[in-house]
Amino acid sequence: MKTKKKDFDIFRKECRRLIDDWELNGWSVRFEHKNIGNREAAMSVNGEDYNATIALNTELEFGSFKEEKRKIAYLKELAKHETIHLLLGRLSYCGECRWVTDSEFNEAEEELVRKLIKII
Asked: Which end of the chain is more exposed for a tag (fewer CB within 10 A), N or C?
């Protein structure tokens, strides 16, 4: 079943809410609504430039969601999942770098800790 613009708007709005709540506004985030294969949603990040793309698949299996409330809850969970990847983005980026200094890694870790203090 194809996701509709309304579904994408719910997904994007929830991502934006979490980005604001978790103070991830230093990131430049672009949202896409496109076919991404067998994944429901995806997030790619460039931790050096603080750029990210969050995508919702145009093809999702909504067959088990007869009620609109359950479908909305599912879209919000997908948004939360991808936004958590954004929360971890800088630290993940450091882990993927071939060369990262101790201070770069510690800075990324401290950034995450400061955000988690406010969230938890």
From this structure: C
